[in-house]
Design brief:
The protein is built from 49 helices and seven strands. By secondary structure, it is mainly α. The strands form two sheets. It has a five-stranded parallel sheet with strand order 2-3-4-1-5, with helices on both faces. The protein has a two-stranded antiparallel sheet with strand order 6-7. The longest helix is centred in the N-terminal third of the chain and has 18 residues.
């Protein structure tokens, strides 16, 4: 905790403390609050913001965030307009019930910037206990902030139980497990109240848990404390604690036990609201006096609260059902709004349409505030209380839709439940469409495809537009599942159902164009993409970001890189401007793959790293897999074999079990490329043969979807398998003729040059390759051709002729940072009698090699500034704080040896990185 406070005072830090109840997490947070408030030698006292989750508040949108930020609401007016509006809407400070839902990520940025503004005044320490009981929307904001504190004077400490698992906060931020006390520390805590032998038993039973140690010791008889009678040994620590507390609770008078239930069931522990609730239940504050005297509850600054949060659940769990219903009914009588709806629902034992309708209204209110986790829970509980099957299915559908937006894994289960109770074909189609979308993003692509096609078939005759859109979505699922012919087929069916002038036609044309291009029918695919561009009702780059990304990807796969990048830039910048991050990870990954292809590797690394972060935050496994592949390919080209293999291993480990059919096609290709780069030709051939088999099996006829075939042929050439290399080249030449792609033609000619039996044949092949390169953009591929040509020239004892292509190839490899390829070119150049230089990395100007020094986020900041954004605008577009942008700019200027934004813009413009 000391290190956290120090780090927070100078640059920002976050820490999750996790462990079992009573282990000491709260004590550590208390320690941090005391130290921060008092200040340390040489450091001013900090501003301390503190809150804790309460089990009964988990359904209240942004309750914990409001506790933290409302005292500092005067800072809201300093926020950018979109962030202020979103944050105030989330905290119910503004907004109209008729307004559409606000943007949750703009609210997250608003919260970060409020903390950053407080940090400008003096260090800030944010302490949140019982994270597991914090409402989902506040949790999302806290974890978003925790991942972006690197440049702020803010320390954030979260305390949580251990039940989040590796998929929760422990994976997002640094975490420390709080363990039990050592035996000597346990002895100090009990201060001689038990004999050494009994102490050893207590340490064994409690595991050094301080709360358990004190509570169990406090419940011992004198004979047990002296070791004269044996300790009862329940099977778990929880049983010990429950037995110790239950005995004390059961010994209270009946009014005290009923009053405790009201306290446990309520949101507020303040004396005023608590008194009203107790009076509604026919009780008074005096009824709690016996529990206070026994130490089960303690006085707070404004009321009463439990001695430990675990007691709240224990009291509710042990209370008779009638007492619980009475407590919730009393709380409902003195509450209004969503809180009234939840209390009323908790007091309702069975179906009740009025209670369900009130909770549905609470769900709508939560949705309007972008609290999709809470709205999903409200819809779900409303469905449980709904007596009629049709509205119950509708409310389950709403619950599942909001669960998808919140990242909750419960959506598929609720969809399945709704499908079991509704026979209506239209309703079933809508639910199956939602379920298919969930499975697509989760990585269960085969199941998604089946659901979407079945849903379309169910409404094909009654709702052609819905069927058209469902089949278009099925196209994406089929592509991800590795069934390109199926993708083409359902895309054609989708287009057949589209109206001539409706917006769904643009959608279908784009999806069909992308599928045809992937299958190798590039001329037909290009025609569909052209038709989509001509269609007068094209989509919105924010709402239809995924379709823009698919179109940009398709254009790049027919070597229309400028056209593809223009679409992708439009989608990315629109998403940043409107904080629409739902598909931003996929769009950035597509743009990063394109940038890798055209030699903008520094830019690609920035996009791909950000893409992976968004995919992780949103739980989009298909995008995680795709981003990891693109990063692995970039690392293979750069020669970082360890990093490449780590990306592949992670993709297989985290996504492999979900059956993303296209994943192995990508991963074997990238492992083969990495092995080839390092001269491991047999291993490269083994991996790439698998890639070729998968390409044929999955119907991928476009050799530029993943350009593996030339790598496979070259691996066989260098491994001495000329016959097999020739067979692979024939396959690649056929694909080049069918698709008309210059890059495939150039790659095939390059390998033909390596296989040539005479200097004249080699010269003709490399000449053909050079001409093909002139029709496309790919500096790395051109440099590879020049390297291969020079190697063949040297083999035919023409070192003088080899020097020019070697010099050009070496300059390109060094500019890109392609280390193993540069090493080979330098070795060949030295053998050819060329001049070597220790400064080749700067020979082509600062722009290329220097940009490779930037971290991915530094590059993204550079590009934002070069687009003309000021620091505040850049921060908003990149979802970081202004101070983070300023800190990155300082490092960027130093690394690139520039002194102004103008110099930086000029440098990136020269590298063709600014549109």
């Amino acid at each position: 905790m000391d290190d956290l406070l120090v780090a927070g005072g100078v640059g920002g830090a976050a820490l999750l403390l996790w462990g079992e109840p009573g282990i000491g997490k709260t004590a550590l947070l208390d320690y941090a609050a005391e130290r921060a408030t008092a200040g340390t030698p040489g450091a001013a006292p900090a501003t301390v913001l503190r809150a804790r989750g309460i089990e009964t508040e988990t359904v209240l949108p942004f309750a914990t965030l409001g506790d933290l930020l409302m005292p500092y609401s005067s800072h809201f007016r300093e926020l950018p307009g979109a962030q202020r509006s979103a944050l105030e809407s989330c905290l119910a400070l503004s907004g109209d019930p008729a307004d559409p839902p606000g943007n949750p990520y703009a609210a997250c940025m608003g919260a970060l910037n409020v903390l950053a503004a407080l940090g400008d005044e003096r260090p800030v320490v944010v302490l949140v206990d019982d994270l597991h009981w914090v409402d989902p929307s506040s949790q999302r904001v806290l974890l978003f902030v925790a991942r972006r504190l690197s440049s702020e004077r803010v320390a954030l400490a979260l305390g949580s139980r251990e039940d989040h698992g590796e998929s929760g906060p422990r994976r997002s931020i640094p975490a420390v497990q709080v363990g039990g006390l050592a035996p000597e520390e346990c002895a100090t805590l009990l201060d001689g109240r038990v004999t050494p032998g009994v102490l050893a038993d207590l340490v064994r039973i409690s595991g050094g848990n301080p709360l358990a140690l004190r509570e169990i010791a406090g419940g011992l008889t004198d004979e047990q404390a002296r070791g004269e009678r044996p300790l009862l040994d329940p099977p778990s620590l929880g049983s010990h604690l429950e037995r110790a507390w239950a005995t004390r609770i059961d010994g209270l008078p009946d009014p005290a036990r009923r009053a405790l239930v009201v306290l446990a069931a309520g949101r507020s522990t303040a004396a005023g609201p608590l008194r009203k609730a107790l009076e509604a239940a026919g009780l008074s504050l005096d009824a709690l006096s016996p529990a206070e005297e026994d130490g089960l509850i303690t006085a707070t600054a404004d009321g009463l609260d439990f001695h430990h949060p675990v007691l709240r659940a224990l009291v509710l769990g042990r209370a008779p059902l009638a007492h619980r219903y009475a407590a919730f009914q009393a709380l409902a009588e003195v509450s209004t709004g969503p809180l009234h709806a939840w209390y009323r629902a908790s007091a309702t034992p069975g179906p009740d349409e009025e209670a369900a309708a009130a909770l549905a209204e609470a769900a709508r209110e939560a949705r309007r505030r972008s609290a999709f986790g809470e709205s999903a829970l409200a819809w779900r509980r409303a469905a449980e209380l709904t007596p009629d099957p049709a509205p119950r299915a509708d409310r389950l559908h709403h619950a599942a839709a909001d669960a998808l937006l919140s990242g909750s894994p419960a959506g598929p289960q609720w969809c399945e439940e709704a499908l079991r109770i509704t026979p209506d074909p239209a309703v079933r189609a809508a639910i199956q469409g939602l379920l298919g979308r969930m499975y697509t993003w989760k990585g269960e692509t085969a199941q998604a495809y089946g659901l979407l096609v079945n849903a379309a078939d169910a409404v094909r005759d009654t709702d052609r537009t819905r069927a058209c859109l469902l089949l278009a979505e099925a196209t994406a699922a089929a592509r991800l599942d590795g069934h390109v012919p199926a993708a083409v087929r359902v895309a054609e069916e989708s287009l057949a159902l589209a109206s001539e002038s409706g917006p769904e036609r643009w959608y279908s044309l784009t999806l069909l164009g992308g599928a045809l291009v992937m299958s190798g029918r590039t001329a037909e695919g290009r025609g569909m993409l052209e038709a989509a561009d001509r269609h007068g009702t094209g989509g919105d780059p924010v709402r239809d970001q995924q379709v823009y990304a698919i179109a940009g990807q398709a254009w790049s796969r027919v070597e229309e890189f400028t056209r593809g990048r223009r679409l992708l830039n439009t989608a990315v910048e629109s998403a940043r401007r409107h904080s629409a991050v739902g598909v931003l990870g996929f769009t950035l990954a597509v743009r990063g793959e394109l940038e890798t292809r055209i030699g903008q590797w520094a830019s690609a690394r920035g996009d791909l790293t950000e893409a992976l972060r968004w995919a992780e935050e949103l739980g989009q496994l298909t995008c995680v897999s795709y981003a990891l592949y693109c990063l692995a390919r970039l690392e293979a080209l750069r020669g970082d074999r360890v990093e490449c293999e780590e990306h592949v291993a992670r993709a297989r480990r985290e996504c492999g079990a979900y059956g993303i059919g296209c994943q192995e096609f990508h991963m074997t290709a990238v492992l083969g490329l990495s092995a080839l780069a390092h001269g491991d030709h047999d291993a490269a051939a083994d991996q790439l043969e698998q890639t070729l088999s998968l390409a044929v099996e999955q119907g991928i006829g476009n050799p530029e979807v993943v350009p593996f075939a030339a790598d496979l042929a070259e691996a066989h050439v260098r491994a001495g398998n000329a016959v097999r290399a020739g067979e692979v080249v024939v396959w690649l030449e056929e694909r080049a003729r069918e698709t008309g792609l210059a890059s495939a033609e150039a790659a095939a000619a390059r390998v033909r040059g390596l296989l040539a039996g005479t200097p004249e044949e080699a010269e003709a092949c490399f000449g053909a390759a050079s001409k093909a390169h002139q029709r496309t953009t790919g500096p790395f591929d051109l440099a590879r051709t020049q390297l291969c040509e020079a190697e063949v020239l040297r083999r035919y004892r023409r070192p003088g002729a080899a020097r020019a292509p070697l010099s050009s190839a070496l300059a390109c490899f060094e500019r890109l940072g392609a280390v193993p390829w540069a090493r080979r070119a330098a070795s060949e150049l030295a053998a050819a009698g060329g001049m070597s230089s220790t400064d080749r990395s700067t020979a082509g100007g600062l722009g290329g090699a220097a940009l490779n020094q930037l971290t991915p986020q530094e590059f993204q900041v550079s590009r934002a500034i070069a687009r003309g954004l000021n620091n505040t605008e850049a921060a908003a577009s990149l979802f970081v704080s202004r101070k983070t942008v300023e800190a990155h700019l300082t490092r960027i200027y130093r690394k690139l040896h520039v002194r102004s934004r103008t110099d930086l813009t000029r440098l990136l413009t020269a590298a063709d990185l600014v549109d």
